[in-house]
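Model it.
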Amino acid sequence: MKVGIGLPTAVPGAGRAEILEWARRADAAGFAALGSLDRLVYPIAEPLVALGAAAAVTERIRLMTAVLLLPYRQNAALVAKQAATVHALSDGRLTLGVGLGSRDDDYEASGVPLRGRGRRADEMLAEIRRLWAGEKAGFAGGVGPDVSGSPPELIVGGASDAAFRRAAQFGDGWMMGASGADRFPELVQKLEAAWRQGGRDGEPRKLALTYVALGDDPQRDTEASIGHYYSFSPDYAAAAVAGTAKGEDGVRERLESLRSAGVEEVMMFAASADPAQVDRLAAIAL
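Modeled.
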């Protein structure tokens, strides 16, 4: 199982120094990928911009939005160009993970209705795929850097039937959110059924996201970061805090449970922005 690590962009207090040093250490430690979360109405760095900064201070680690909330962005051509730019400037290291999101305020702030977001995501993904493939637009030709020879990988998140169909139609694979490892085999069965129904050859990539916490007080760190991130829903926040793998033994057990469930790549998001967490997690996970 490959192991990636998320940038601490959603952790309160994380700034330029912490985020860039985190990226450097993750690259040097040997993590498979560097991830970024997404919300609009929250003090968090925009994920593609954050990965662009990470690209400038890293050399080999893959970059992944985990996941970018696509429909409220409205403009598929702009997203295609932004992603192609990060992909080109990182020498082909971007994986664009996309999802829908369910927060009313994210959509209200964009002036986009929450209703119909699945249909808009389908339309946007179709356009992004066409533009990455080199479809002409306007008098000057393509949109953004030419990535038609080797476009970014595309991963779809979500646990609905529509998400699995979307992954099969547009994606290279699928990512499970921060659910328990026990759900993974059941959800993969749905993914593989949609893959076959969609007439896809080969096997989809199968990824998962998980939250972890090390440090002197993992419970406090988890409540202050992950609990705060999900505070719009107190019940969900409590579940996310309780479900975070805490301490070295907890992280080891979480990784083993995901590996045993068939996860091919896990993206760990830590509850602290201290770059020393990267080295501690590497000692456990790699």
